[in-house]
Q: What sequence folds into this?
């Protein structure tokens, strides 16, 4: 039975199975090893995420042995629960919306953002102590892109998100990861190492292009690898074709 | 809690979360509605699939309420099980390997292929009576592509799969679907309606290009839609951004 990798976040997670998406790439990377489960909620900030986290994650603990109903007296208590291998927590792009512009209803003050991230980590660690919790900072913001592709009418001529604000939230996210001793992908910093990041990685100043998705995939896969979660180290589900004896294929399926 | 769509098949399923893959496209199509679960086994034929089906599908019945452990006396018996919405069964490309060529160890005689498909449908229907079982025929074969991209040394100069053989298995698959009264996507026929299908849809004479993936996605999504499974009719997991009152966002999360 396969373990799970849960992707919990906002629209950048919800969209991650679109063309060239980082979620699909992770599912392909972990093919035959891990079930990648999508829990992306477009527009959500950490305040809302904290409200719904228990519901969003309900049912995501793999339960073995359900095929053999009634195998143990007493029922559920004897079943073996298997926690997810890892959960990515990828919020902040909405929290960082400015409080006096058109996306103000999604804004969360930075002190509360820090507190909410800690609370999400605690909730996950209480539920699944062995699970790797991986934070991802919000991406940088291309303000020109935000003005060209507004989500709603924006007569002010001012972007509802700025790169400076996203950077402050990204720094807060990195600080929370250090305090909670969990790994973090600093996407805000990483992307800005590349010349022309504004258009190369962001299709509307906020959401990812195919190249932007590739960076997220590579960074997340590398962090997971550093925590022992890679295709090379995880067992495959059922025999691989290369392990099947052409002279006696059925013998491979006996155990 | 989200229901599942399970993709059970061979390499064309296992690869379906690769770049432009039909599995990813389904996951994106059903975003916020359905968890798409990948159970693709490269090289497997129906004989092997039947041997492993119980193990491959173990744990894939969603179980609600596990978050509230011990909420009901007696344990597991009181929990509410939720079967998958649908399972795609996509085998035949390996069964149709010719019995006297280099992939002979994967060959399954056509009468046994029919029998095995019926057995897989019965197993699924017994496990989950309400679940839609959707058969998919093997794709057509571009023999030139198979000779240019052999999986193993092939000194014979003869392809290990032919389009004629794939067509016979595709017809058998359609016949099984009619007999068992389950829907089927006749991919073998559908693809050959397009001029230049050999290179447009198949990258090595057997596996799918991006355009080939798109056809599988469109056909599967349309069949599921005909059986009531579409993004328009399925409920979303948690409130959509458009449903959240900007003046009082938290009220949306109260129920």
A:
């Amino acid at each position: 039975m396969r373990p799970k990798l849960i992707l919990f976040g906002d629209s950048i997670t919800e969209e991650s199975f679109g063309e060239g998406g980082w979620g699909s790439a992770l599912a392909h990377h972990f093919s035959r090893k891990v079930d990648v489960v999508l829990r992306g909620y477009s527009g959500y900030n950490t305040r809302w995420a904290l409200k719904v986290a228990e519901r969003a994650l309900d049912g995501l603990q793999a339960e073995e042995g359900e095929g053999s109903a009634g195998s143990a007296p007493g029922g559920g208590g004897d079943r073996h629960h298997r926690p997810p291998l890892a959960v990515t927590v990828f919020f902040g792009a909405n929290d960082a919306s400015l409080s006096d512009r058109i996306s103000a209803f999604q804004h969360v003050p930075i002190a509360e953002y820090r507190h909410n991230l800690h609370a999400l980590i605690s909730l996950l660690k209480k539920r699944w102590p062995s699970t790797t919790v991986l934070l991802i900072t919000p991406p940088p913001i291309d303000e020109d892109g935000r003005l060209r592709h507004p989500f709603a009418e924006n007569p002010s001529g001012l972007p509802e998100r700025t790169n400076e604000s996203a950077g402050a939230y990204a720094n807060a996210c990195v600080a929370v990861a250090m305090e909670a001793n969990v790994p973090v992908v600093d996407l805000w910093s990483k992307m800005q190492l590349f010349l022309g990041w504004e258009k190369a990685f962001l299709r509307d100043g906020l959401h990812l292009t195919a190249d932007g998705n590739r960076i997220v995939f590579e960074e997340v896969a590398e962090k997971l690898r550093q925590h022992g979660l890679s295709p090379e180290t995880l067992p495959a589900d059922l025999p691989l074709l290369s392990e099947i004896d052409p002279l006696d294929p059925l013998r491979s399926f006996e155990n």
